[in-house]
Write the C-alpha cells for this entry.
Amino acid sequence: MAPGQGELLAAGAEPRPLADRMRPRTLDEVVGQPHVLGPEAPLRRALEAGHLHSMILWGPPGTGKTTIARLVARHTEAEFLSLSAVLAGVKEIRAAVERARTVRAAEGRATILFVDEAHRFNKAQQDAFLPHVEAGTIVFVGATTENPSFELNNALLSRVRTYVLKPLDRAALRTVLERALADAERGLGGRVEVAPGLLDLIAEAADGDARRALNLLEIAADLAEPGPEGRRVVTEAILRQVAVSDVRRFDKGGDLFYDQISALHKAVRGSDPDAALYWLARMLDGGCDPLYVARRLLRMASEDVGLADPRALHLALDAWDAYERLGSPEGELAIAQAVIYLACAPKSNAAYVAFGEAMEDARRHGSLEVPLHLRNAPTRLMKALGHGRGYRYAHDEPEGYAAGERYFPEGMPERRYYRPVDRGLESRIRERLEALRALDREARRRGRGTRGERREPR
C-alpha cells in the first residue's frame, strides 16, 4: 500500500487500487463508449432483448473491456469465468468448459468465459474454443488491444461479433475523475480536494486511458498534504509532478503504427505539410525508427510526386543519408525537411500507375519473345539469324527519334501506360510525348515504321 493510502480509504473499504474500486457497476455508468452501450447501440439493444452472444471487445488499454464483460454477465445473470491468455493454456480452457457445463446442468444459467489478451492465444488454443462456442456451452468474450483481423482465427471471428472501443476523450476522463472525487464509499469523496480546472492535466496525461487517469489521481492524492479541514489538497504542482509522462499510445508494428504512417503518407499526398509534420512528430515521439520513415519517404517521392518533381526522390535519399550520418535528433530535422518538401511538391502518380499496368501486362501476356530487330547481336551467328536487323538507331534519325518504330513484342497491342499529368515537370514531359506521338502518326500515315501489329495505344 502506498504511503498515506490507508487514510484515503473509506471506513471498511478494501485496500484495492482506486481504478478497481471505481469500476462501473451498471451499463449506464460506463462512459466514453456510447456507440456500443448507448440506448440505440447494437450491444445494448441485444442485451436488453435477451440475446447473449459471443463477442470480441477490441480497443486500447483503459477503455473498459474487462468492465463491460463483467457487466454483460451481471446484466444477463450469467456465470462469469475469467482467463488470461498470457497464463492460461488448453488445460485451463477445458476446466472452464467443464465448469460451464456444471453451471448449466445445475442452475440452467449461461456462462461467459472472458479471455483477456485473447490475441496471445495461438491457433491451436483458439481452435479449442470453437466446438464449445458452436454448441453454446460457453459465451466467449475476448478482449484484445490488437486488430482481430490479423491476430484471431477466421473460424473464431465468424462465430463472434466484434465491438470496437474507443480511447476516452477528455470529457469522458473528467467524468471518471469527478466520480472518484465525489464517491465517498468507493472513491476519494470528502477526503481529497482538486480544483476542477486541474483535472484537465490528468485527463491530458492519461491519453484516453481511464485506468491511467485514476491511477494518476490516486498518486497525486497520496502526495498531497492535509489542508485546514483535514482534506488532502491536490495542487497544480503535485499534478504536474505526477502527470509528467513521455509515453504516448504507439505500438511498433501494430495498428497504431500503420494507422499513423498511413496518415503521414496521405497528408503528404494531400499536400498538407502541417498535418504531415504532426504525424511525423507523433511517430518519432512514440519511438518509431526514423529510418523507417526515411524509407517510406522514398516510396512517397516515387508514388505520389514522381516525375512532377524528380528532385523529391533525391531530397528523400539525402534525408536518409543525413540521418544515417548524424542520428537523432539532428538527422530528424533532415527527415522533417523532406516531409515538408514532398508535401509541397506538385503531385503525380503517373509513374506509379504506369509501372503497375506494365507489371500486370507482363504477367498476363506471358513470355513473349523480343522482336528480332530489338535483339542483341554480339556474335556473327546472331547477326546471321537476323538479330538486330532493321533496327533504327534513334540518334541517326531526324530530331533523334525513330518515328513510327515499334518496341512492343510481336502480337501484343501497343499500350500507353505512362500518362503524365499537367503539373510540375510532367506538364513539359507531356508536351514532349505529344509531339513525338504526332511524328508517329505522320510516319504511319506515310507507311513508315509499320513493322508488326499496329493499334492505337490505350
User: Anything to note?
Assistant: Residues 288 and 448 are 58 Å apart (CA to CA). The chain has four domains: 33-164, 168-243, 255-344, 371-445. The first strand starts at residue 55 and ends at 58. Residues 168-243 form a domain with the Helicase, Ruva Protein; domain 3 fold (CATH 1.10.8.60).
